[in-house]
Amino acid sequence: MGLWGGRFSGQTSDLFKQFNDSLPVDYRMAEQDIIGSIAWSKALASVNVLTSDEQRELESALNDLLKQVQDNPELVLQSDAEDIHSWVEGKLIDAVGDLGKKLHTGRSRNDQVATDLKLWCREQGQNLAELLGGLLDALVELAKKHQDTVLPGYTHLQRAQPVTFAHWCLAYVEMFERDLARLNNALKLMDTSPLGCGALAGTAYAIDREALAKELGFARATRNSLDSVSDRDHVLELLSVASISSVHLSRMAEDIIFYNTGEAGFLEMGDAVTSGSSLMPQKKNPDAMELIRGKCGRVVGSLTGMMVTMKALPLAYNKDMQEDKEGLFDTVDTWSICLKMAILCIESIEVKGENTYKAAQQGYSNATELADYLVAKGIPFREAHHIVGRAVVAAIEAQKPLEDLSIEQLKSFSEVIEADVYQHLTIEACLEKRVALGGTSKEQVAHALSRFNK
Ligand code: ARG
Question: What is this structure's pTM?
């Protein structure tokens, strides 16, 4: 007899069974289903559906099962049960006989799956928060080492103004800190227990759902049974935080791939995270970074998929919602391996300070400084901008940086230019001027890092 045998006399087609079964995906919630079942057995005992002896017997059989599952999570896959909920129930009945059949009293797979998945999301979310913390640590460490390393800063992929390598690291620190805040916020919002909402209308037993929620470690019970069994916001939120974070990871990967090119030569990645070419012996490819950049596509795809699955679903539970797990599980796996890989890569980075310095010197990245110098001498900025533009054209023609033009040459663009101009055109001067909050001056970067000196 299957789970819903009584109403049916005909056989299910094999194709339908294969199509309908979710065990190959949701077997990963075995622990959560067992833990939820133990809590439910206690709730049933509290309303005298189970005697305390019966509850104890169920709990001990469920704990045995939990241990088996922890020892071998793939064990579940050896069964042809429809889903993880029927697998656990079936195993319980195998272990304790008819008593096992009492556990599903007042419960539906609808509140059960909603509870299991929230428990799963909570656990995974906590792991991901730790990984994000690890990546933040790695970036902060790298930043500390490179407070004096000059890096050309870019806009439109054209050298724009010099920054420090630490400042670059700290830009990604900001992004991953926001991801962490978003993740913690999502975890807080999902901290409610749907158990005891039944199929859709609520359970017919006077269970103290708040106590049940506490038993499962949730902050409180959900408030509306229709919403409880059909809410998948926690899935959408995790997918969305993962998507945003993957975009950040992907952008960081792209920067590193560019910095690692032969053309830039700004850094080298460790042997442990790069690969060679089977044909070209000189190659050292940033595969890890390219994969991080590439996997972002799948993560964003899962968010899109789930959004579209949920769109226009009528209340309350619909089987469409079973589609929530595949993309979520894949996303959590992908996001977490990308974070682990990013940590390893960041730890392996060796910055080529001479090359970054040289590159920052080229590309007229001190042109703004010359304009600011003219402004200080009383020329309106718009006009100063125009004067410097002409000076840059002349310097390009002479194939020289601005600071290599003679004072006579510089004076030909504006009479106010004096010999003191050269001290304003050094990279160090460019950096040290960025003293307002959030700028790249040594002082501001040290201030940004001071938050992490615990
Ligand atoms: N395997 C189902 C899911 O993941 C469990 C809920 C089934 N409920 C139902 N009414 N068929 O959504």
Answer: 0.94
Q: CA 144 → CA 10, 137, 148, 393, distances in Å?
A: 70, 11, 9, 38
In angstroms, the Cα distances linking 360 to 49, 363, 399, 430, 435 are 75, 7, 16, 11, 19
pLDDT in tens, 315-371: 999 999 999 999 999 999 999 999 999 999 999 999 999 999 999 998 898 999 999
pLDDT digits (tens, 9 = 90+) for 109-121: 999 999 999 999 9
Question: How far is CA 275 from each of CA 271, 346, 349, 377, rounded to the nearest angstrom?
Answer: 7, 16, 15, 54
37 tagged catalytic: no
User: What is the number of the ligand 1 atom nearest to the C-alpha of 319?
Assistant: 12
Pairing relation of β-strands 220-221 and 192-193? Answer: parallel
Question: Considering only CA atoms, which residue is closest to atom 10 of ligand 1?
Answer: 110
Given 52, 275, 277, 447, which residue is catalytic?
277
Read off the tokens for 64. 């045995």
